Amino acid sequence: MKNIINEFPATDLHGGQLFAIDNFLNPNDLTGKDVLDIGCGFGWFEQHALKRDVKKIIAMDHTDEDLRTIRKFILDQRVDFSVGSAIALPFPDNSFDTIVTWEVLEHIPRQTEVQMFREMNRVLRPGGRIYLSTPHHSLITNLLDPAYLLIGHRHYKPRMIAKFAEAAQLTVENMTVKGGFLDSIFVLNLYIAKWIFRRRPFFEDFFNQSADRRYTSSKNGTFQLFAALRSSGEV
User: Fold this and answer.
1) N-to-C CA span, the chain
2) CATH topology assigned to domain 15-139+154-180+220-231
3) Which helix (H) or strand (E) holds 170?
4) Angle, helices 181-191/204-216, rounded to nearest 10 degrees
5) Is 32 left (phi over 0), alpha (psi -120 to 50) or beta?
6) Residues 6+ apart with CB under 8 A from 73
7) Were 13 and a residue from 17, 161, 165, 167 both cysteine, which residue would form a disulfide, CB within 3.0 to 4.6 Å?
């Protein structure tokens, strides 16, 4: 992930990130655990996993360049870094208690989702858990995502995630969809601000506060799909 506006690992989380770490992920799957973060980006998750007393976390991304920012800012000895592919994980079988992969599934090569799920199951210990998020397939989300319209950025329905999990012999423990229309508008805002003006999103505080309200609401959303999967120890 190219850091074109000199970002750093987020410590003040909002919306989907805040929901993932505070409401969706079981803290028992971090404390004292060996964790793999597939597609770690700039390291927001590492910052918060360390606060929850993770035993060890491997921050993995696709290239050394993708790891440049996280290597600079995350200096805790409990964090190691690895270059690798989500569909060919460079780790032995049964290496991790927990795997997280936030907004990664839609970026892997087309029709390799089951391969990624099988690889995650392979490197998980029996009973280990996977937590993921990915764009949700809905009319509004699709129409307002330029990457979906222009370059085939993929969005997923819950039944699609369940199908991938079943093919990889993983059990779905929880799935939910959060967020809504304003989150799609924020994505447009983000693209324009970052790629055209080389700056943070416009009206960022407003969007953050409104996202926090939507993601803490008990209502179903339309924008972002979260799934928790469990390994049976079989591949």
Assistant:
1) 31
2) Rossmann fold (3.40.50)
3) strand 170-178
4) 150
5) left
6) 8, 9, 42, 43
7) 17
From the list 12, 11, 49, the residue with the least C-alpha distance to 32 is 49
Domain extents in the chain = 15-139+154-180+220-231
Contact 171, 230 (CB under 8 A): yes
Q: Mean pLDDT of successive 10-residue segments in the chain (235 residues)?
A: 79 95 97 98 96 97 96 97 98 98 96 98 98 96 88 93 98 98 94 91 96 94 97 72
The Cα–Cα gap between 166 and 159 comes to 10
pLDDT at 234: 63
- Rounded to 10 degrees, the C-alpha dihedral 185/188/190/192 comes to -140
Residue 190: partners with Cβ closer than 8 Å, 6 or more residues away: 201
